[in-house]
Amino acid sequence: MKTNNKNIDLYKIIIPLALVGIGLALYLLYEYLAPPHQSLCYINAQINCEASTKGALANTLGIPTALWGLTGYIMILISAIRKWRRVLFGVVTFGLLFCLRITFLELFVVNAICPVCLACQTVMIILFILGIKLLEEKR
Predict the structure, then answer these.
(1) 45: part of which helix (H) or strand (E)?
(2) How do residues 21-55 score in pLDDT, each as one tens digit?
(3) Which residue range is the domain that position 108 belongs to?
(4) Fewer CB within a 10 Å sphere, N or C end of the chain?
(5) pTM for the structure as a whole
């Protein structure tokens, strides 16, 4: 499959963003697995990672939520390296919806915001926009 130069430039942005996402997800997974302690992202009762890593949002369908994120970012990285633009777009779309769900639950159910989760959300929004651009350029 031949890719044009604009697509290659987008992949050069997507790959580092996926690596940032992997790093963020690894941190959240570490917080999930670590014994109880005050995490680096603890600011106060309303702004901290503990609600997402130790509380009600720690697991999704019986699997650590951070592991879902880590898997997603790894799939995005592989899709970008292999230049599988449709797969990449599908994964970032699912990832964005997943992140939006987490943010909604943090705001309206748990009443606490995880700064690292918001960073993941930001990365996923950027990846989603880049995924759209990849699909548009191919037309």
Answers:
(1) none
(2) 999 999 999 999 987 777 788 888 899 988 888 88
(3) 5-138
(4) C
(5) 0.89
CB 8 within 8 A of CB 125: no
The answer to whether 88 and 53 are in contact (CB under 8 A) is no
Cα separation of 125 and 91, whole Å?
Answer: 12
Long-range contacts of 74-81 (CB under 8 A, 24+ apart): 74/18, 74/22, 76/14, 76/18, 76/21, 76/127, 77/15, 77/18, 77/19, 77/22, 80/11, 80/14, 80/15, 80/18, 81/11, 81/15
Of 10, 28, 29, which Cα lies nearest the Cα of 79? 10
d(CA 60, CA 67): 9
Distances (CA, A) of 35 to 30, 72, 112: 10, 25, 20
Token pair belonging to 43: 């600011």
Q: How far apart are CA 105 and CA 99, in angstroms?
A: 10
CB 57 within 8 A of CB 105: yes
Q: Provide the β-strand partners of residue 59.
A: 64
Separation between Cα atoms, residue 25 and residue 114, nearest integer Å: 12
CATH number at residue 109: 1.20.1440.130
